[in-house]
Design goal:
Layout (H helix, E strand, L loop, with lengths): L4 H32 L3 H26 L5 H10 L5 H12 L2
Helix pairs in contact: 1-2, 1-4, 3-4
Length: 99
C-alpha cells in the first residue's frame, strides 16, 4: 500500500495530541473535579479531547478510503485511540513505518 507522508505526519501529530488530551482529562481534570469541586476543567479538556479525537478518526477514515490501511491496521488505529497511552504507541508506530 502506498501511503502519503503528509497524511502519516498529520495522523501521528493528531495521535500525540489525542493521547496528551486524554491523559490530561483522566489524570488532571477528573481528579480536580472530584477532589476540588472544579468541574469546568472536565468540560474544557473533555471538549478539546473530543474534537481532537474526531479529527483523528476523520483522518483514519480518509486514509482508509484512499486504501492506505488494511483492516487490521484500521482496527489497531481505532482501538489504540481508546487507551490512555495508546496514542503515544500509535505515533511511534506511524513514525517507524513512514521512514
Amino acid at each position: 500500500m502506498k501511503r502519503d507522508l503528509r497524511f502519516l505526519k498529520l495522523l501521528s501529530t493528531l495521535s500525540l495530541m489525542q493521547a496528551a488530551a486524554f491523559i490530561a482529562l483522566l489524570g488532571i481534570a477528573v481528579p480536580v473535579k472530584y477532589f476540588a469541586g472544579y468541574a469546568t476543567g472536565v468540560t474544557v479538556v473533555g471538549t478539546l479531547h473530543g474534537a481532537i479525537w474526531l479529527l483523528y478518526m476523520w483522518t483514519v477514515v480518509a486514509m482508509t478510503s484512499l486504501n492506505m490501511w488494511s483492516k487490521v491496521e484500521v482496527s489497531r488505529l481505532v482501538l489504540s485511540s481508546l487507551l490512555p497511552f495508546g496514542g503515544f504507541a500509535t505515533a511511534h508506530w506511524i513514525n517507524s513505518i513512514s521512514k
